[in-house]
Amino acid sequence: MTGTAPTSPAPHNAPRRPLVAILSGAGISTDSGIPDYRGPNGLWRQDPEAEKLVTYEYYMNDPEIRRRSWRMRQDGPALRARPNAAHEAIARLERSGVPVRVITQNVDGLHQLAGVPDRKVLELHGTARTVLCTGCGARSPMSEALERVAAGDPDPACTGCGGILKSATVMFGERLDPEVLGTAVSVAQAADVFIAVGTSLQVQPAASLAGLAAEHGARLIIVNAEPTPYDELAAETIRTPIGTALPELLATLAP
């Protein structure tokens, strides 16, 4: 009796896990004590003049604006803030093995402090934890510059070239880093689920990422207290507080 050699089973390819992209705005950090900008109690509504402190032209040309900016950094809550339940929920989802990419409009670094790897966080507007010299481009920790302010230097200059120092954030009047923005666009186009959380979706080009994701087939979910211009494209809009809503939502995406 002639037999046939047994055939090997076809290789099993595990299904690709959905890519979850999260666009976070100021609203995700309010529970950490950092005020938002455009909400009902937002910084710009409370003090419209404060916008000058983060406008490049005013900052570079007016020493008094710079001195006020350094006082704001020194007294502000951003560098003392700790991650809240929403940041921690994102970090948990990333640790679970789900492919996660965070695109943030925030400059507070709380996603990384919560445990999301730096390479998975795209900071569209830069970081307040680093200082940049506008002359030579040197970077240094914000903490070192603030120590100089505390020691009596109201407008510390670059120790290397004497140039004007600013936080490594994108001020009004400056362009976003094209490489960071390009990567964010690619993530939005590739996402299976795109969650916009704590953002008014009014600031471009960041806001357009939500529409781009929806156009490329992502399930768009918007978690924000107030309506946004992209709500009609969303599969789901959630108005309940972010600290509760986001952990509950992300738990449904974990394996």
3D architecture notes:
With 255 residues, this protein is an alpha/beta fold. The protein has two domains: 15-34 and 82-125 and 175-255, Rossmann fold, CATH 3.40.50.1220; 47-76 and 128-169, SIR2/SIRT2 'Small Domain' (2-Layer Sandwich). The chain has helices at 43-46, 56-61, 63-75, 85-95, 110-114, 142-150, 178-190, 208-215, 242-251, and strands at 20-24, 100-104, 121-123, 126-133, 139-141, 165-169, 193-197, 219-223, 236-238. The strands form two sheets. It has a six-stranded parallel beta sheet with strand order 3-2-1-7-8-9, sandwiched between helices. A three-stranded antiparallel beta sheet has the order 5-4-6. Helix 8 links the parallel strand 7 and strand 8. Helix 4 (85-95) runs parallel beside helix 9 (242-251) and helix 7 packs parallel to helix 8 (208-215). The longest helix has 13 residues, at 63-75. It is elongated and about 55 Å long. The protein starts with 19 loop residues before the first strand and ends with a helix. Mean pLDDT is 90; it is low at 1-11. It comes from Streptomyces rimosus subsp. rimosus.
